[in-house]
Amino acid sequence: MDFKFSADDEAFRREFRSWLEANAPKREHSVEDDLGPIRESGGEDWQRRLEWHKKMHSGGWVGISWPKEYGGRGASIIQQLIYNEELGRANVPQLVNGLGIMLVGPTLIHWGTEEQKKRYVPKILSGEEIWCQGYSEPGSGSDVASLQTRAVEEGDYFIINGQKVWTSDAHHADYCILLTRTDPSAPKHKGISYIVVDMHSPGVTVRPLVQITGDANFNEVFFEDVKVPKKNLVGEKNQGWQVAITTLMFERSGIGGGRDMLGEVRDLAHLARAVQINGKSAWDHSSVRQKISGFAAEALGLKYTGYRQLTRRLKGLPPGPEGSVLKLGTSELNLKMNKFAMELLGPYAQIEFKAPFAVDKGKWSYRMLASRALTIAGGTSEIQHNIIGERVLGLPKGY
Q1: Pairing of β 175-181 and β 131-134
Q2: Residue ranges making up the domain that contains 313
Q3: What is the CA radius of gyration of the chain?
Q4: Is the confidence at residue 255, as pLDDT, over 50?
Q5: What pLDDT is attached to residue 38?
Q6: Do residues 283 and 230 both lie within one domain?
Q7: Helices (H), ranges, the chain
Q8: pLDDT, tens digit, 9 for 90 and up, residues 333-349
């Protein structure tokens, strides 16, 4: 791969950077901006992000690589990479419809009917309609295909009953991409259908779940005799597993591929310079520097692994199992770095987020509590190991 950007791509970078400098929220850097991808998404923070999302959309800077006919910018995959880099550089708020943009839109563009694309995709970009993902169930976490939520045909509708859990942003969502079982007699990877459900339908109940961080940004969702029009079926009936896998590939490449771990390594190095071990800066100890250097090497490896995934996209292919390498590496590196931060902080690691005397306002303890979730979201680390072994390395099952 040629790591040099073309003149057109550099012009795109300058254009977006200039727009951000002119339009980014004028605010001081806050500790919430340092917490990473899993943090509270309600109240004032949600409203702030919603306003920013609308401003980005009005400037044509949401879903930039999507086709123009569906409200995107038609930008190249390389320009999408540049876009992500510039967003990280500007340290702006996250957009509100992350799942819609990362998962739903690309999946609908690939599998949806023209009616579905024109109906849903533009409002995903504008933030007018927020989306969530109904995959996991209390008895079907990593083994998603064992799901038991049922959709029974009744005239022009499906009648849906069941429960989903760990559903991020369901308390804000207008729509859900829901995996349901439409043929209970079929093998577990068959007989599954992928259906769009209006979250405001009678019979849908959302209950937020409080995490160990104290936040409640994911939920359990109950479906009791929910009527959904058959036109909301994405792909073919009983063939929803193919559609679901497409969504998962976008999810895994999105979780791992868009995150600047080098920035977090630099943040950890800053912490090492600020705390002391035996009366001198932790950074002065060679063992600490070696540990952080190892993290930096892993972060660089992930960066260039992301470029390999990018090459696949440049060839016109959807994200493949290689995305599992990024997802696994990113979530596990994040966990290791936050564990090491706890070692550096010593007794101060016990002080909670925003408490008096907490180092960096307690963001490191928050990150540590939140980091385990990233090894579960989008497919557990154990599942990613299996995918890499079987589909990338060609190893036999049970190796």
Answers
A1: parallel
A2: 259-392
A3: 22
A4: no
A5: 47
A6: no
A7: 7-23, 43-58, 77-90, 98-99, 105-111, 114-126, 240-257, 261-274, 286-314, 323-345, 363-374, 381-387
A8: 999 999 999 999 999 99
228 with 267, same domain: the answer is no
CA 192/CA 149 separation, integer angstroms: 10
243 burial (CB, 10 Å; 0-12 / 13-18 / 19+) is: buried
- Please check whether residues 271 and 388 belong to one and the same domain: yes
Query: Coil, helix or strand for 92?
Result: coil
Q: Are residues 80 and 135 in the same domain?
A: no
Nearest to 258 by CA among 374, 372, 169: 374
The predicted structure's pLDDT at residue 124:
96
pTM score, two decimals? 0.81
Distance between CA 268 and CA 58 in Å, rounded? 36
Least confident of 11-25, 168-182, 201-215, 383-397: 383-397
Q: Which long-range contacts (CB under 8 A, 24 or more apart) does 354-360 make?
A: 354/31, 359/271, 359/274, 359/275, 360/31, 360/34, 360/271, 360/274
The pLDDT value given to residue 252:
56
- 326: number of Cβ within 10 Å: 25
Burial of residue 31 (CB within 10 Å: 0-12, 13-18, 19+) is middle
Q: Are 393 and 266 in contact (CB under 8 A)?
A: no
In a domain, 107, yes or no: no
On whether both 303 and 212 belong to a single domain, the answer is no
Cα-based distances in Å from 73 to 94, 252, 282, 332:
19, 23, 47, 34
First to last CA, the chain: 33
**Maximum separation of any 2 CA atoms in the chain, in Å:** 75
Top pLDDT among 32 and 52 is at 52
At residue 41, the pLDDT reads: 47
Quick check: 209 pLDDT over 50? Answer: yes
The rounded distance, in Å, linking the Cα atoms of 187 and 60 is: 44
| Number of domains within the chain | 3
Residue 182 is classified by DSSP as S
Residue 397 included in any domain: no
Same domain, 150 and 59: no
Active site (catalytic) residues: 251
If asked whether residues 295 and 387 sit together in one domain, one would say: yes
pLDDT band for 29, please (50, 70, 90 cuts).
very low
